[in-house]
Amino acid sequence: MTMTDGDLAAHLAEVAGRILLEVRASGVFEGKALGKAGDQTANQFLVHALKAHRAEDGLLSEEEKDNAERLAKERVWIVDPVDGTREYGEERADWAVHVGMAVKGEPALGAVALPGAGKVLRSDQPGEVPAAPQTLRMVVSRTRPAAEATAVAEAIGAELVPMGSAGAKAMSILLGQADIYLHSGGQYEWDSMAPAAVALGWGLHASRIDGSPLVYNQSDVYMPDLLICRKEHAEMVLEKVRALG
């Protein structure tokens, strides 16, 4: 089966999401055990599929032992089998599956499945982002809202919207459920790569919170911060971040 990179990313994200729903519906696992089972099962599917269909590309997965060979590759698939393991284990809907590809370090392609909502959003098939309301909404962690995010929200008069996974937060802007996703509590490349690619593909702004570009396929996969929002709000948010120091 020959597919474009975009079709492959979307197909794998969607199928992995269906597998995860089946694992959860089986009733065999619950809580943390469910999260672990889901992570491992979805990871095996994604890793085997990518090695079968894109063997020459590099690969980085949250659930797979890192291989330094990816650093020499121009094209590197970066996946998160279950973004929001806690939410998945708690049988919530705000979790996601990330399948993305960085090309020369840039977030070039991505698909984010939201299995709880039955949606797959992809960078190569952008839709129209709904207009922002008069009072902006800033999506934040439902368990650990970042201090910078809450401070910026207060400064611009934005309403806080608690939500689970990074992918769910980023996609909430595309779906018209929120307007700004500002994160400063630390993440890893697999948390943001596919969502950032999708956001950029849909015409949104995606950067570090100092305004610098997001760079992937690094030897250190830790990423301290992230901003995804509509382009018309980016400078305002970045200015508030600078003002807060």
Automatic annotation (TrEMBL):
<feature type="binding site">
    <location>
        <position position="191"/>
    </location>
    <ligand>
        <name>Mg(2+)</name>
    </ligand>
</feature>
<dbReference type="InterPro" id="IPR050725">
    <property type="entry name" value="CysQ/Inositol_MonoPase"/>
</dbReference>
<dbReference type="Pfam" id="PF00459">
    <property type="entry name" value="Inositol_P"/>
</dbReference>
<keyword id="KW-0479">Metal-binding</keyword>
<protein>
    <submittedName>
        <fullName>3'(2'),5'-bisphosphate nucleotidase CysQ</fullName>
    </submittedName>
</protein>
<feature type="binding site">
    <location>
        <position position="62"/>
    </location>
    <ligand>
        <name>Mg(2+)</name>
    </ligand>
</feature>
<feature type="binding site">
    <location>
        <position position="80"/>
    </location>
    <ligand>
        <name>Mg(2+)</name>
    </ligand>
</feature>
<dbReference type="GO" id="GO:0046872">
    <property type="term" value="F:metal ion binding"/>
</dbReference>
<dbReference type="GO" id="GO:0050427">
    <property type="term" value="P:3'-phosphoadenosine 5'-phosphosulfate metabolic process"/>
</dbReference>
<dbReference type="GO" id="GO:0000103">
    <property type="term" value="P:sulfate assimilation"/>
</dbReference>
<dbReference type="GO" id="GO:0008441">
    <property type="term" value="F:3'(2'),5'-bisphosphate nucleotidase activity"/>
</dbReference>
<feature type="binding site">
    <location>
        <position position="83"/>
    </location>
    <ligand>
        <name>Mg(2+)</name>
    </ligand>
</feature>
<keyword id="KW-0460">Magnesium</keyword>
<dbReference type="InterPro" id="IPR000760">
    <property type="entry name" value="Inositol_monophosphatase-like"/>
</dbReference>
